[in-house]
Amino acid sequence: MTHAISKVLSPNDTGETGAHQAGILVPKDSEILGFFPTLPADVKNPRMHLYFRDDEGAQWEFAFIYYNNRFFGGTRNEYRLTRMTPYINGNGLKAGDELILERHPGGARTVTFRRSRAPVVEEGVLRLGSGWKIVAA
DNA sequence: AGCCATGCACCG
DNA sequence: CGGTGCATGGCT
């Protein structure tokens, strides 16, 4: 039961917009969240480091964080996968490219990507949906 | 809901 | 001092 999900990168995800944080937003969809370990909701901003292996066998460390300060006086309530700068830059990923995450039987996680064709541009602005897909459950 | 942006801390 | 990541708020 390999569980695979993917996301089409946004400009902000890759750092192209100047945001000094490369990382992607994870939708609160049970199928997607099910891919990641469960983070405690009673703690503020719980995080967990995850290791992913790429095609060459190299290991990458990403951080899965639940920014939930909404329940602690703030305004946030969202999940993010950060610390992806080395992987993004190392592979020269750009907006529109697809990041693929897989969890294999036994618990091993792997990352891959698929280079994209031209992203959808409308009125000079990039319009994307959430970009997330469930490849296999 | 999802993407964009930023002040500040930390580190080489 | 420049790059990176944290945490947080803003905009659409």
Question: How does this model look, in words?
Answer:
- It comes from Sphingomonas edaphi.
- This is Restriction endonuclease type II EcoRII N-terminal domain-containing protein.
- Pfam families: EcoRII-N.
- 10% of the residues lie in helices and 38% in strands.
- With 137 residues, it is mostly beta strands.
- The chain has a single domain (3-136), classed as DNA-binding pseudobarrel domain (At1g16640 B3 domain).
- It binds a DNA duplex (12 and 12 nucleotides) through helix 1 and strand 4.
* SSE class: mainly beta
Q: Mind telling me the CATH class?
A: Mainly Beta
Computed over alpha carbons, the radius of gyration is: 15 Å
Spatial strand arrangement across the major sheet: 7-6-1-10
Q: Work out the count of structural domains.
A: 1
Which CATH architecture would you pick? Answer: Beta Barrel
* Terminal CA distance: 7 Å
Count every helix, treating DSSP H or I runs of 4 or more residues as helices: 3
Shape: globular
- Helicity range: 10-25%
Region (Disordered): 1-20
Pfam families: EcoRII-N (PF09217)
Protein name: Restriction endonuclease type II EcoRII N-terminal domain-containing protein
Domain Restriction endonuclease type II EcoRII N-terminal: 6-84
What's the short story on this structure?
The protein has 137 residues and is mostly beta strands. The chain has helices at 11-14, 30-33, 85-90, and strands at residues 3-8, 23-26, 47-53, 59-67, 78-82, 98-103, 109-114, 121-122, 125-126, 132-136.
Describe the protein's topology.
Layout: E1 3-8, H1 11-14, E2 23-26, H2 30-33, E3 47-53, E4 59-67, E5 78-82, H3 85-90, E6 98-103, E7 109-114, E8 121-122, E9 125-126, E10 132-136
Antiparallel strand pairs: 1-6, 1-10, 2-5, 3-4, 4-5, 6-7, 8-9
The protein binds a DNA duplex (12 and 12 nucleotides) through residues 10-13, 17-23, 25, 27-28, 45, 47, 63, 65, 67, 69, 74-76, 78, 82-83, 85, 126, 128-131.
Domain Restriction endonuclease type II EcoRII N-terminal: 6-84
Region (Disordered): 1-20
Protein name: Restriction endonuclease type II EcoRII N-terminal domain-containing protein
